[in-house]
Specification:
Structural class: mainly alpha
Number of helices: 13
Number of strands: 0
């Protein structure tokens, strides 16, 4: 690859550090919210841990849909910023906020009406204690969806400007509210999973209000003017949806597949459900570097492609991937060593504990080697506008590899360990197609703005 002289590079090392380092801490804080709910409610019992795990598997579907719209808005705004067109970037920001509020509000209304029926539909017959815990948690999480979606979209806009320190600070405030609320509502008020849900709702309301105030600041390069003067800009919305819809279909299909696998796991018994919740939390922490750099790449690769500087896009893509691998090897090694004491924090039964440690350690080895090319690399393609390709590959790989192979392994009696390996096989297939697309350069032909 052709070297680019420092004076010609679009981003200085200082800019990249100011973008990535706050994002790193923000992701830790974001994951901590969900992890705090699970750990702090563990004092109530394994059924509560399992109930939160089941709700989170549904919530993650909707959260990924909200994130898809945020990604679409961030890509459009980033490409306009690459062309130094701040007016159009701000117009895109306003339309992103509108469609986020409308979509997330509709989802909340449907889920509120469906509560118990939706949980039954997805997970079928599960233990009464687990279902009660899930219902009590679900209602408050559903109420928080519009605030979470709005916060995510405003966060994405700030990252498009390189203002990730703002999003990190707000995440810290949200964590303080969530953990403090958990302590009061779970331990003192004795509200169990309902207390955890109320605390999460409160933190998301505060986060959304702060971030909306931030992006309405006219001093920022990307800002929203006259928020309450409704302006429906359909051409701009189509640009956002051109990225957001394929990403939304991809993410929703991906998480529907995960829910089906989670539903399969629920048939293995409460120990497997609880162990799976712990595995997901630990692996989420190990994946933080890849997730962070994937988000940062939307800004970096997006601006390079908006400026039509593809050599720079390839240069930064390589730099960011090397950084991803370097960091993820470290995080996976650390969590491999401490997998057992971390699992012990969740007050698991002996059976669930053994399952958790075994599956976690296997996944951490695979994650260090294969996760970056499977999940960080497709963000490069999305930032360039190649969202339909990533959608097609991710959907087919998810259904053929992760879902079908999970059921096959379950039939063979491999249980939770089998579903974990099915997930890894999905990663292998994604890598083949995403790597081919990036190296061949098909993403260069895509136009977003």
């Amino acid at each position: 690859m052709k070297s680019i002289a420092p004076a010609e590079r679009m981003f200085t090392p200082a800019y990249l550090r100011s973008l990535i380092i706050p994002l790193f801490f923000e992701q830790i804080l974001t994951i901590t919210i969900g992890m705090a709910d699970t750990i702090m409610v563990a004092a109530v019992g394994e059924a509560s841990v399992s109930g939160i795990s089941l709700v989170d598997s549904i919530s993650n579907l909707f959260i990924q849909l909200f994130s898809a719209f945020a990604t679409g808005g961030a890509v459009v705004a980033s490409q306009y910023m690459g062309r130094r067109d701040r007016i159009s970037a701000s117009r895109a920001a306003k339309q992103l906020v509108y469609i986020t509020i409308l979509f997330s509000g509709a989802i909340s209304l449907v889920c509120l009406a469906g509560n118990r029926h939706l949980l039954r539909l997805v997970f079928g017959s599960i233990e009464a204690g687990v279902m009660t815990a899930a219902e009590n948690y679900f209602i408050f999480i559903v109420l928080s969806y519009p605030f979470l979606a709005l916060c995510n979209s405003c966060n994405a806009l700030c990252r498009s400007m390189g203002k990730s320190r703002i999003t990190m600070t707000v995440s810290l405030v949200m964590n303080v509210i969530n953990i403090g609320g958990n302590a009061i509502l779970i331990y003192i008020a004795g509200l169990g999973t309902a207390g955890a849900g109320i605390a999460s709702l409160a933190s998301r309301i505060v986060g959304a209000l702060i971030m909306l105030t931030v992006v309405c600041n006219r001093k920022l390069d990307i800002h929203i003017e006259r928020l309450f003067k409704f302006e429906w800009n359909w051409p701009m919305i189509k640009k956002i949806l051109r990225i957001g819809l394929p990403s939304g279909v991809e993410n929703s299909t991906f998480h529907i597949g995960k829910i089906l696998v989670q539903s399969l796991v629920s048939t293995f018994g409460t120990p497997s459900i609880a162990a799976n919740a712990v595995i997901n939390n630990i692996c989420s922490f190990a994946n933080i570097p890849g997730s962070v750099i994937g988000m940062a790449s939307i800004t970096v690769i997006g601006q390079c492609c908006g400026a039509r500087k593809f050599d720079q896009a390839k240069y930064y893509a390589r730099m960011l991937m090397i950084l991803t691998y370097s960091l993820m090897i470290v995080t996976c090694l650390v969590f491999f060593v401490i997998a057992e004491p971390v699992s012990a924090l969740y007050n698991l039964s002996d059976e669930a504990m053994a399952l958790s440690v075994r599956c976690t350690r296997m996944l951490l080895i695979q994650t260090a080697i294969f996760w970056p090319l499977s999940f960080t690399l497709p963000n490069y393609l999305r930032a360039a506008g190649d969202a339909r390709y990533t959608m097609t590959v991710a959907m087919l790989s998810m259904w053929i590899c992760r879902v079908m192979v999970s059921y096959l392994f379950a039939y063979l009696g491999l249980g939770l360990y089998g579903t974990s390996w099915a997930m890894v096989i999905d990663w292998y297939v994604r890598i083949i197609f995403f790597s081919y697309r990036w190296l061949k350069g098909g993403w260069k032909t895509k136009t977003v703005i």
